[in-house]
Design brief:
The protein is built from 18 helices and 20 strands. Helix 9 runs antiparallel to helix 12 and helix 16 packs antiparallel against helix 17. The longest helix is centred in the N-terminal third of the chain and has 28 residues. The protein has an 8-stranded mixed sheet with strand order 8-9-10-1-11-18-12-17, sandwiched between helices. The protein has a 4-stranded antiparallel sheet with strand order 4-5-7-6, with helices on one face. It has a two-stranded antiparallel sheet with strand order 2-3. The protein has 3 domains: about 170 residues, Periplasmic binding protein-like II (D-Maltodextrin-Binding Protein, domain 2, 3-Layer(aba) Sandwich), CATH 3.40.190; about 110 residues, Dipeptide-binding Protein, domain 1 (Alpha-Beta Complex), CATH 3.90.76; about 210 residues, Dipeptide-binding Protein, domain 3, CATH 3.10.105.10. Helix 13 links the parallel strand 15 and strand 16. By secondary structure, the chain is of the alpha+beta class. The protein is globular.
């Protein structure tokens, strides 16, 4: 079947994308807590009808095939949703999790790994025909470290030097490579604009980039449409048109998935995974983020958690592999006891965590003086009952985690009362909690908590290793130091790591070239994907 004409495609897309904007805006204006409550109510009411709808849709002709070479993606409206469609980063991850060039054709580093020189790919142009140069890279990095923007911490980059139009050297403070996700912008179009108005620039409504797709149009709070860039350095993308349909974070967008009106959905919530994975029209892909994960932060000043034997016992009582199943996360998701680097995660250079061992957990609690008294269900020691309040984030993803942990601790003779709190992160940072808390933090925040004594955890060796880890730029040294930290954490258990941050993508089976976990980000790799069985 021939692809529809441009005008026919636009009419078809417009019909699909007409929504009640007031409903969308109302949903976006709600607090995260209220959106979470809406999501839970919707799941409770419609779980049965969702399964029925999915079954019914499979009996109909798959509507997605009629869209030819257009792919419609349901996405939350985020500041960077279109970054990798329109703009090129210097480098990107390949299928094995190693770096390969994008805007940069090659690169090299100094012996101390602090200075990186990037040699730009020749012939790359902005969508308006102007050549991309090293001056654009320098401009973008200086823009993003501007005090009114701070998309990149100013301390992360010490200097930026343009050697010539195709070569730029960046000296950075540590191994956190800004080039991982950062795209770059056209200096000739943005250089005269006020950084204070950065997020309101009209440029974002129809950005001019250097990537595989050119922006065609944007309807605020509704959609954004792109067409393949015929002058892309890899050649014209095989997927001719891409439409981003803004659907919010909650229940919006799923009726369109079941009806076949969209081809993909980014950031699928874990509770939808089993139902959608059972739909033969789609595949579920996943990738892991470096922004932390589910964890329990023990307050060491609290009399219940001062003893490391107690913290180890509580950790041993939690079946973390079973928790992965509860949360519909990949069964082989990486688990470990302590922080890790991005490279260690990609290479799976992580030691196995403490196993689930209820017998050993009971022995440790008995050894620490916590016993059952007079047939009670909860352990006691010196008149103190082992009962505490566990704070959980208002994000509903943490609720089943808390229920699972609560049930497993109860088998140990430990009672955890759950309390939802919208400021769990703030409470932990300020040290204003006297109980266990569920949340997640990246390594840098965890190190700050330790150095600021927010957790009441003091270990001179840990402070020394953390200081060295923050000061080195050599990834080999950094990997070794993080390994040392995990060994100490395994003994002290200042934090119990539960699961890694995991993002899910739902994509129609006709979209090919995706793979978990390093090529599962649809928008990042859209220019390298292709479609099969378009005619059904």
């Amino acid at each position: 079947m021939r692809s529809p004409s441009h005008s026919t495609q636009n009419m078809y897309i417009d019909n699909l994308l007409l929504e009640d904007r007031e409903r969308v805006m109302t949903s976006q204006q709600k607090s995260p807590f209220l959106r979470a409550l809406d999501r839970r109510r919707f799941i409770q009411v419609s779980a049965g009808s969702l399964a029925f709808a999915a079954t019914g849709c499979r009996r109909q002709k798959d509507q997605a095939y009629s869209r030819g070479s257009t792919v419609i993606v349901a996405v939350p409206e985020l500041p960077s949703y279109d970054n990798w469609l329109v703009f090129l980063p210097l480098v990107a991850l390949n299928e094995t999790g190693e770096w390969e060039g994008r805007l940069a054709e090659r690169w090299e580093h100094s012996p101390d790994y602090r200075e990186w020189t990037y040699y730009l790919r020749p012939g790359v142009r902005w969508h308006d025909g102007v050549p991309v140069t090293a001056h654009d890279v320098k401009f973008s990095l200086e823009l993003l470290t501007h005090p009114d923007i701070l998309e990149i911490s100013p301390g992360d980059i010490e200097s930026i030097t343009v050697i010539n139009d195709q070569t730029v050297t960046v000296r950075q403070r540590h191994t956190t490579n800004y080039a991982v996700d950062q795209v770059h912008y056209p200096k000739h179009l943005l250089g005269s604009l006020d950084p204070k108005q950065f997020y309101d620039w009209d440029f974002w409504n129809k950005p001019v980039g250097n990537g595989p797709y050119r922006c065609v149009r944007k309807v605020p709070q509704t959609m954004m449409e792109f067409e393949a860039n015929p002058h892309h350095y890899l050649g014209r993308a095989k997927i001719e048109r891409v439409v981003l349909k803004f659907v919010g974070w909650g229940r919006t967008g799923f009726p369109d998935i079941l009806a076949g009106n969209v081809d993909a959905r980014t950031f699928v919530n874990f509770e939808w995974v089993p139902t959608l994975a059972a739909d033969v029209r789609f595949h579920i892909y996943y990738w892991y983020g470096m922004t932390g994960g589910g964890a329990i932060y023990w307050q060491h000043r609290h009399p219940l958690f001062r003893d490391s034997r107690v913290r180890r016992a509580l950790t041993l009582a939690i079946d973390r592999r079973e928790l992965l199943q509860v949360l519909n996360l990949p069964k082989d998701a990486p688990l470990t006891d302590g922080p890790y680097t991005a490279r260690q995660l990609r290479r799976r250079e992580l030691a196995e965590p403490l196993p689930h061992d209820l017998a050993q957990a009971r022995e440790l609690l008995e050894e620490a003086g916590w016993h059952y008294r007079n047939g009670a269900a909860v352990r006691e020691r010196e008149g103190l009952t082992f009962r505490f309040t566990g704070l959980i984030s208002s994000d509903p993803n943490f609720y089943p985690t808390a229920i699972h942990v609560q049930a497993q601790l109860r088998r140990l003779g430990v009672e955890m009362v759950l309390r939802m709190d919208e400021d769990v992160g703030g409470r932990i940072r300020r040290g204003e909690f006297q109980e266990a808390a569920f949340h997640h933090f990246p390594n840098s925040t965890l190190f700050t908590l330790i150095r600021n004594n927010s957790l009441g955890y003091r270990n001179a060796k840990v402070l020394d290793v953390v200081q060295h880890a923050l000061s080195t730029a050599d990834p080999n040294v950094e990997d070794r130091l993080y390994g040392e930290l995990r060994e100490i954490f395994r003994e002290d258990m200042p934090v119990t790591y539960l699961f890694p941050t995991t993002a899910f993508l739902l994509a129609h089976r006709r979209i090919r070239g995706l793979r978990s976990p390093y090529r599962a980000d649809l928008l990042r790799y859209m220019g390298e994907l292709w479609l099969e069985d378009q005619n059904g």
